């Protein structure tokens, strides 16, 4: 098992955001965490990346294991460079004062002795738009292009597990569908994906399995198509 | 006209000192959004380190008994190294623990202010109130260029500032570490997500800023060889203001602001009673900030910091 989270509790100061959640991810899966605002989806992803306050909540109890080894308390940059787990954060957080190319180069920091040409070609193949705009300052990109860059940048860390926090936010429907198609392709190429989404229907369509979070607790889980059919999930998260 | 040109040369030298200090303010601010108010005193520490190192090297009193040339050549890098150790120590001991605890930036700034006072008074306590004089490391040569007298030291100071500018500009725009520094200034949160240790970038920034201030302190002590614990206070404040007027966070701004402030100061002192100097200088800077609150090269921040 690639990732196993058990009874994880996390709190922002005195306010507990996760009340002991358990889930797991197998290698090669697409797993989605769905739920309403404030359900704890982002907190879960940030906890997996070992982000700490003020950026994230403090893990107060439970365990997180990557390939059987505990990762609690690990430094975030080592989660990226050693465990090869990468996060595309909510709101993208691209470096707007750097060019598209510089954003990509920066993300290969921990692989300084490796040749990254191959990876750049792969990313530009995936997102030809980024190749066209490689020399452009990245804050001049459109929202969709910025999301492509955020994903491309994560891939430049040579991650084997990709975490995405609300990747569809602020995107036009067509752009959104294309992005999920890209995630499918990345998964077919061997990437394990954990995606947090408010657009539950779309996320469940591409995912293998899903977990439904509600105010810091997992209230349902199972294969994605099963969740899509469950009446109570339909009513609460899929718009009837 | 000759007087004016002469004063221009003086302003270039004086501005070089401001610029070398302002750089440290601007680099640290760019990366941490922290105004490191101890930085002027790092400049003072640099001057003292240069004093001790060169005195130790130089014949006939020094332990090593080296020639002037050799002493000078060794004092420059060692001063930069030792000064950056002091700068990094401040970051480690004072700023990092606070920032790790998520303290508001204001508390870190106040801590910096206190660290500056500790450096000043620590120096006073350790070395006493007697003033130190840097030994002569460079034989004075005066060149006359069309009636304008220029000493070799002045030229070296101006050259050093220009050289530092080129090197820093290269580091910030062309190297991976420079790229990371620019990235942090835009979005500190996302840097570790790229697999980059944020603290290493911060330490590197302090090394750059402090070593350049150390070089500035040494050159200052060579130009005005009397050292005292408070020498960094006023100069540091002025360099900070220069950095803000130039546009804090931008290394071009540190130079522009430094030279501008020096130019105004020198010209006022040359053509008006010298008691008017600071009043005029700061009034002009106030006017510039009034017109451009973000400084000459500064851009208004459009993103959250």
Chain-wise SSE layout:
The complex is a heterodimer of chains A (240) and B (305).
Chain A: E1 3-12, E2 15-25, E3 30-35, H1 41-48, E4 58-66, E5 69-70, H2 76-81, E6 85-88, H3 100-107, H4 117-126, H5 128-132, H6 143-156, E7 161-165, H7 173-188, E8 192-197, H8 200-206, E9 209-214, E10 217-223, H9 224-229, H10 231-237
Parallel strand pairs in A: 3-8, 3-9, 6-7, 7-8
Antiparallel strand pairs in A: 1-2, 1-4, 4-5, 9-10
Helix pairs in contact in A: 3-6
Chain B: H1 2-32, H2 39-57, H3 68-100, H4 105-127, E1 132-133, E2 142-145, E3 148-151, H5 152-174, H6 176-186, H7 198-223, E4 226-227, H8 231-246, H9 251-271, H10 277-291
Antiparallel strand pairs in B: 1-4, 2-3
Helix pairs in contact in B: 1-5, 1-6, 1-7, 1-8, 1-9, 2-3, 2-4, 2-7, 2-8, 3-4, 3-7, 5-6, 5-7, 6-7, 8-9, 9-10
List the total number of helices of chain A.
10
Q: How far do the termini of chain B sit from each other?
A: 48 Å
Give, in spatial order, the strands making up the sheet with the most strands of chain A. 6-7-8-3-9-10
Radius of gyration of chain B: 19 Å
CATH homologous superfamily title of chain A: P-loop containing nucleotide triphosphate hydrolases
The CATH class of chain B, by name, is Mainly Alpha
Key words describing this protein structure:
heterodimer, A: 240 residues, alpha/beta, Rossmann fold, 6-stranded mixed sheet, 4-stranded antiparallel sheet, 10 strands, B: 305 residues, mainly alpha, ABC transporter involved in vitamin B12 uptake, BtuC, two-stranded antiparallel sheet, two-stranded antiparallel ribbon, 71% helix, globular
């Amino acid at each position: 098992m690639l990732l196993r989270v058990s009874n994880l509790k996390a709190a922002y100061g005195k306010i507990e955001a996760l009340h002991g959640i358990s889930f797991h991810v197998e290698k090669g899966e697409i797993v989605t965490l769905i739920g309403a605002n404030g359900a704890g989806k982002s907190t879960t992803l940030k906890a997996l990346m070992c982000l700490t306050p003020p950026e994230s909540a403090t893990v107060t109890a439970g365990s997180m294991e990557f390939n059987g080894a505990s990762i609690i308390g690990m430094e975030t940059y080592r989660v990226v460079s050693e465990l090869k787990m990468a996060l595309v954060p909510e709101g993208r957080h691209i470096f707007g004062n750097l060019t598209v190319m510089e954003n990509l180069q920066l993300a290969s920091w921990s692989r300084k002795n490796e040749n990254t040409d191959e990876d750049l070609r792969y990313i530009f193949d995936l997102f030809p738009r980024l190749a066209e705009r490689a020399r452009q300052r990245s804050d001049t990109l459109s929202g969709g292009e910025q999301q492509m860059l955020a994903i491309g940048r994560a891939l430049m860390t040579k991650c084997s597990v990709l975490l995405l926090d609300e990747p569809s936010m602020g995107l036009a429907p067509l752009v959104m569908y294309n992005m999920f198609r890209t995630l499918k392709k990345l998964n077919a190429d061997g990437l394990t994906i954990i995606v947090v989404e408010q657009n539950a229907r779309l996320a469940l369509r591409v995912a293998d399995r899903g977990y439904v979070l509600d105010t810091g607790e997992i209230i349902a889980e199972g294969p994605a198509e099963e969740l899509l059919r469950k009446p109570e999930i339909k009513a609460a998260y899929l718009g009837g | 006209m000759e007087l004016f040109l002469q004063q221009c040369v003086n302003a270039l030298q004086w501005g070089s000192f401001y610029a070398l200090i302002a750089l440290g303010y601007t680099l640290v601010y760019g990366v941490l959004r922290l105004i490191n108010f101890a930085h002027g005193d790092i400049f003072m520490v640099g001057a003292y380190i240069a004093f001790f190192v060169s005195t130790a090297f130089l014949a006939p009193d020094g332990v090593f008994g080296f020639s002037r040339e050799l002493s000078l050549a060794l004092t420059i890098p060692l001063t930069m190294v030792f000064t950056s150790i002091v700068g990094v120590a401040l970051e480690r001991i004072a700023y990092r623990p606070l920032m790790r605890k998520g303290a508001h930036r204001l508390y870190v700034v106040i801590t910096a202010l206190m660290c500056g006072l500790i450096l000043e008074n620590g120096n006073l306590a350790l070395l006493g109130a007697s003033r130190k004089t840097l030994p002569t490391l460079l034989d004075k040569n005066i060149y006359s260029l069309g009636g304008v007298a220029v000493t070799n030291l002045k030229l070296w100071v101006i050259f050093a500032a220009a050289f530092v500018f080129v090197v820093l500009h290269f580091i910030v725009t062309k190297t991976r570490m420079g790229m990371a520094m620019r990235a942090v200034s835009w979005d500190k949160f996302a840097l570790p997500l790229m697999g980059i240790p944020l603290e290493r970038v911060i330490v590197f920034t302090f090394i750059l800023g402090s070593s350049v201030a150390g070089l500035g302190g040494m050159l200052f002590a060579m130009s005005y060889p009397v050292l005292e614990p408070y020498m960094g206070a006023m100069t540091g404040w002025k360099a900070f203001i220069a950095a803000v007027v130039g546009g804090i966070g931008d290394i071009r701004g540190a130079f522009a602001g430094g030279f501008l402030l020096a130019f105004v100061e020198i010209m006022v002192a040359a053509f008006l009673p010298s008691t008017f100097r600071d009043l005029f200088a700061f009034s002009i800077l106030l006017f510039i900030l009034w017109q451009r609150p973000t400084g000459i090269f500064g851009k208004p921040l459009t993103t959250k910091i």
